[in-house]
């Protein structure tokens, strides 16, 4: 692997209704950035249509520091869209994607930079412990990562969120992927390149509340599975096959009953079969419909987000 030095680091930070956290983020960055020494830095904050004072804070911050670049969406397009927009504007040799609430500590980044300098293109943070998160969140996260691992055709590292360092080559590869439904951690796994993990303990959120309620979490999980796997559709075909075999056996049974002359019997079996089959057919149609809907969305070719305002974007640090 080729050794290299990091000259210019970009941070990409999605922000959605984070007015409570932003002052803390600003202070933390002010204290931490000097520790990078001579490395040039820029911070790309993407306001994902916040309805609170987040954008005003970002605007004031960027006016005082040319390293702070701000993009602001016309409405809430979602976390993945915000990170995607940030990645399109990265000018550094590498970038780190990190949440605004700093649950993923800045202190892990120097370790990531070290791995980058050893030659790795994707260095992801792997959560060892999740402090201060509810039992429910930990359970659903555990199930999510294991299900994803089973479903995906690419190896997705376990317990890994979007907190990661990615090299220029990898950013360019992901930016060149045209799909508008973006499941970034899957895309980073899909593009390949040398990957390394840095284990860390995830801190609790200090200010504000999670912006990922159950509804968003479920839709994100389905987004991940359906973007990277046709396993759900295959399961439908498998169960179709099993049901066909069962139907054949039931048919034989029906015929022998007919020969024996006790045809009124078997009503229960018929009802169960009818109901079961009806249910399976509807479920199958639903899953196929989800994919057709997704094709429809992609074919429309709409952008994944719309940038309404930006600050400092083309200003040099
Ligand atoms: N976020 C976003 N758009 C959304 C939801 C969240 O940009 O629709 C941002 C949010 O501001 C934060 C990051 O995504 O910087 C992760 O969100 P959060 O910390 O609420 O998620 P959790 O850590 O609870 O999974
Ligand atoms: Mg968080």
Defining key terms:
8-stranded mixed β-sheet; 8 strands; alpha/beta; binds magnesium ion; elongated; single chain; 10 helices
What does this structure look like?
The protein is built from ten helices and eight strands. It has helices at residues 22-32, 54-64, 79-88, 109-118, 135-151, 168-175, 184-190, 214-228, 231-260, 267-300; strands at 8-15, 40-47, 68-73, 94-97, 122-130, 160-167, 195-202, 307-311. An eight-stranded mixed sheet has the order 7-5-6-4-1-2-3-8, with helices on both faces. Helix 5 runs parallel beside helix 8 (214-228) and helix 9 (231-260) packs antiparallel against helix 10 (267-300). It is elongated, with a radius of gyration of 25 Å. The two termini are 31 Å apart. Bound molecules: uridine-5'-diphosphate and magnesium ion (MG). Uridine-5'-diphosphate (UDP) binds at residues 14-16, 18, 48, 76, 78-79, 82, 99-101, 103, 205, 210-212.
């Amino acid at each position: 692997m080729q050794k290299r030095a990091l000259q210019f680091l970009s941070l990409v930070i999605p922000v959605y209704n984070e007015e409570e956290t932003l002052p803390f983020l600003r202070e933390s960055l002010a204290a931490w950035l000097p520790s990078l020494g001579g490395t040039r830095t820029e911070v790309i904050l993407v306001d994902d249509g916040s309805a609170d004072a987040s954008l005003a804070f970002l605007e004031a911050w960027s006016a005082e520091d040319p390293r702070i670049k701000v993009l602001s969406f016309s409405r809430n397009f979602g976390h993945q869209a915000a990170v995607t927009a940030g990645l399109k504007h990265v000018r550094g040799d590498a970038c780190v994607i990190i949440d605004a609430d700093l649950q993923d500590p800045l202190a892990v980044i120097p370790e990531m930079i070290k791995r980058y300098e050893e030659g790795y293109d994707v260095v992801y943070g792997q959560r060892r412990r999740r402090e201060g998160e509810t039992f429910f969140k930990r359970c659903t996260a555990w199930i999510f990562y294991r299900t994803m691992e089973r479903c995906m055709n690419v190896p997705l590292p376990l317990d890994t969120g979007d907190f990661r360092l990615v090299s220029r080559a990898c950013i360019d590869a992901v930016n060149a992927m045209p799909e508008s439904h973006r499941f970034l951690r899957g895309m980073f796994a899909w593009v390949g390149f040398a990957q390394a993990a840095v284990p860390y303990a995830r801190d609790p959120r200090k200010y504000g509340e999670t912006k990922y309620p159950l509804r968003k979490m479920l839709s994100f999980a389905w987004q991940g599975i359906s973007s990277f796997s046709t396993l759900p559709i295959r399961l439908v075909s498998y169960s179709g096959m099993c049901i066909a075999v069962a139907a054949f056996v039931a048919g034989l049974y029906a015929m022998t009953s007919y020969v024996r002359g006790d045809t009124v019997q078997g009503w229960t079996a018929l009802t169960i079969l009818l109901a079961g089959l009806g249910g399976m057919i509807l479920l199958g149609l639903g899953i196929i419909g989800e994919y057709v809907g997704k094709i429809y969305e992609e074919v429309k070719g709409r952008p994944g987000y719309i940038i309404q305002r930006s600050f400092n974007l083309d200003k040099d640090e």
